[in-house]
Amino acid sequence: MRYKSLLVITIVFAAYFFPQNIFSDDIEKANKYYEKYDFKFALDIYEKLMTKQPSLEIAQKIASCYNYMNDSQHAEAAYARVLTFKGFDPVNYKYYADMLKQNGKYTEAKNNYLLYGEHVPQQAKEAQVMANACDMARTWAENPDRNVRIENELSVNSEYSDFSPVVLNNALYFISDRLFSIGKYNRKDVIYGWTGNPYLKIYQAGLTGMENTVVPLPKPVNEKYHNGPCAFTASGDTLYYTRTDLPANRKRESLVVVKNAIYMAVKQNGAWQTPRILFGNGRDYSVQHPALSPDGTILYFASDMPGGYGGMDIYAAKKNADGTWGAPKNCGANINTTGDEAFPYVRKDGKFYFASEGNLGMGGLDLFSADGAYTTFSVAENLKAPYNSPKDDFGIWFTNDDSGYLSSNREGGKGLDDIYRFRVVKPAPQKPVLAVNGLVVDKETLMPLEDIHIVLVNQATGKEVSKVSDALGHFNFELEADMDYMVTGDKEKYYARQIGRISTKGVKQSTIYDVKFELERVKNTFIVRLNNIYYDFNKWDIRKDAVPELNRVVDFMNQVPDVNVQIRSHTDSRGPATYNLWLSQKRAASAVNYLNHAGIAQQRLTSVGLGETELINRCKDGVACSKEEHQLNRRTEFKVVKVEPVLSMDKVAPGSKAGRRSF
């Protein structure tokens, strides 16, 4: 049951149960029920009339009944039907959008808010805000906090409305309109015509979750009409609660509109004494939903008393030294809006919570929090999903900072409104991500260099990991925590092997170290290893798949005319070592011959056959290996003379701001 249904009740003092004339198809009788806020009874008649005499007036009344009864599913269909009639009020675009939003249909809701702005230009700005809020709501709905777990408190909930939980002395108190015998009153007593269900009562349940422990509080706390929500003092001997009561000197058969007031009851010798009215008079405006500050000196509540921002506002009253309460003060614009705010609550640490439909939210009532007290608060913050949903979310209570209860009529519940248990699950500590992002460039041109071998050495274990720079000159390594590393060059390529040091000792957060290598060409040598230059077993002729790589060497030597090249060929371990040495010499000679024919002068080329002396894998004599593994050893390398790469590193010290990114 939503806060709307707590604003007023109407009582005809010839008490009715289920009216006999509910089966009438008389529109006048339906309108009388509607005027008395007996929407359930009016709706039954309107639905019958709609099948016989469909009209815009009846369609509008049906949609309004479902809206007031907080049945957004039926209300959506009813407002859609209103829009099919000629001459409907354009405000129905907004009402239809409201229902779509509460049903989680954010795109359709946005479109109808915009239609509302088009047809009612004076509300175009407000309509645009509401349309934009649909995008925000969809984002929240699609990205809930994964650390929050919410579960239906099935042992307490019923098929009716159950909401506004309060925990005291290992008992759970809550509000419900379920059928339950209370003293001499039973299910044949007065029915709340707004919903067709009994009036609200305060119930108590053991926290063991046993369904049969749910019982209503006795008289004089629970009386015939609405009782609750409620708040207890820390000692549990004083109860503040919402209540509707009969006015004095009433006339029988008269129509009386009764509004809510806050009552106070005191427990003496284990029994509740007769409650007395504290705020409100039950006639001029409603006062409801009491909540106490942790020290019991401030009483918060919701009211539509004159002088507010609009709708229901939240007010606060301070307790005087003599135990009386001061005049209520509005909690201010950071809490209240032109819409409705209700269901205040103060956590033990002073954090303020409440429900609002006036602040931007996900659909119906949303839960909000704010820092502050009495009349001074920070700007309210939406709790977002999963605390909030497209439906109504309200009546929150914390058992500690990370767990508690909330009320909601979200999809998948057991009844109309349900009590849900929530808890925040702290994510397991994650190991920091430690890595090196490197870049290799030519020092003169600053162009990235491809196929440069970089080696990372763990100084504690001696483990080496090798990477090759990609086409953009990039390379990367993953690092372990609390380790010292050296970043070095391939011993065959670089004259100076040790390049720089990185330490992850003491680093607690994820860190990426940016390392830059600049290579410059000077005298001496380095190795250019050709990719995928392989030979068939026992052969030395150049295969077709080697031609592109040989052409790369031709291009390189043409671009750098002052270098000489030594061709170094290798075999696998199969066959006699002397034969393999001869075979490798033949393979080196075939590569020289190809380069000669490509225009490279003979004096710039020398060749050497190394046989099986420099295997690159485990496939030595006596080790069983596959054909593919043996083929990796049948390769050619080129030793380029008069070029030495010298590396410089933008060395990054852990903890420094430059050169590292933390996330």
Report on the structure:
The protein has 663 residues and is of the alpha+beta class. The protein folds into 4 domains: 3-142, Serine Threonine Protein Phosphatase 5, Tetratricopeptide repeat (Alpha Horseshoe); 148-424, TolB, C-terminal domain (Neuraminidase, 6 Propeller), CATH 2.120.10; 434-521 and 647-662, Immunoglobulin-like; 525-642, OmpA-like domain (60s Ribosomal Protein L30, Chain: A, 2-Layer Sandwich), CATH 3.30.1330. The strands form 10 sheets. Strands 7, 8, 10, 11 and 12 form a 5-stranded antiparallel sheet that branches. A hairpin with a 2-residue loop joins strand 3 and strand 4 (171-176). Helix 1 (27-35) runs antiparallel to helix 2 (39-52) and helix 4 runs antiparallel to helix 5. The model is unreliable at 1-8, 10-23, 182-188, 491-498, 522-528 and 643-663 (pLDDT under 50).
Tell me about the largest β-sheet: 5 strands, antiparallel
Summarize model confidence as the mean pLDDT.
84
Q: Uncertain runs with pLDDT below 50, 5 residues or more? A: 1-8, 10-23, 182-188, 491-498, 522-528, 643-663
Number of helices: 10
What is Rg? 40 Å
Alpha-carbon distance between the two ends: 45 Å
Overall 3D geometry?
Answer: elongated
CATH level 1 class label of the largest domain: Mainly Beta
- Estimate nothing, just give the exact number of structural domains: 4
CATH superfamily of the largest domain: TolB, C-terminal domain
The CATH topology of the largest domain is given as Neuraminidase
Tell me the structural class: alpha+beta
